[in-house]
Design brief:
single chain, globular, 8 strands, 2 domains, mainly beta, about 120 residues, 2 helices
Length: about 120
């Protein structure tokens, strides 16, 4: 999905950009909406030490002045972070949305490669 107009929207200074989205009008008038989540499985193999440690931590914990990451920063802030202009591996959910009822008429799940056009902050978006 490198050709799609995909971007992420996160707080200013966010380094672990793990999701992005796109929306476009289809030739039939419906909308295509996609949500793309960073795919760490290329780097984290099942039952590896990193996988076991991530399972123990279960999530990234955000405190006022500190955070404890579920995965190493090399993965979350570099190799898997969905930065603007860089190709990344993702899991994507693509919906076709009826333009009149706004109900999903089709849902597709895929492993994808995306190239985010921009990593936007909330204000810019």
């Amino acid at each position: 999905m490198r050709h799609e107009n995909i971007c992420s929207v996160d707080p200013i200074g966010c380094k672990d950009i793990d999701d992005a989205l796109h929306c476009k009008v289809l030739p039939n008038g419906n909308y295509e909406v996609g949500v793309h989540i960073a795919d760490v499985t290329h780097f984290v193999r099942p039952n590896s030490e990193i996988d076991r440690e991530a399972a123990r931590r279960c999530t990234t914990v955000y405190l006022v002045e500190k955070r404890t990451d579920m995965l190493p920063g090399l993965l979350t802030e570099n190799l898997c972070s969905i930065r603007g202009g860089v190709e990344r591996l993702t899991f994507s959910v693509i919906w076709e949305i009826d333009s009149k009822t706004f109900k999903a008429v089709k849902t597709d799940y895929r492993k994808t490669v995306i190239r985010s056009r921009a990593a936007l902050d909330y204000y810019t978006a």
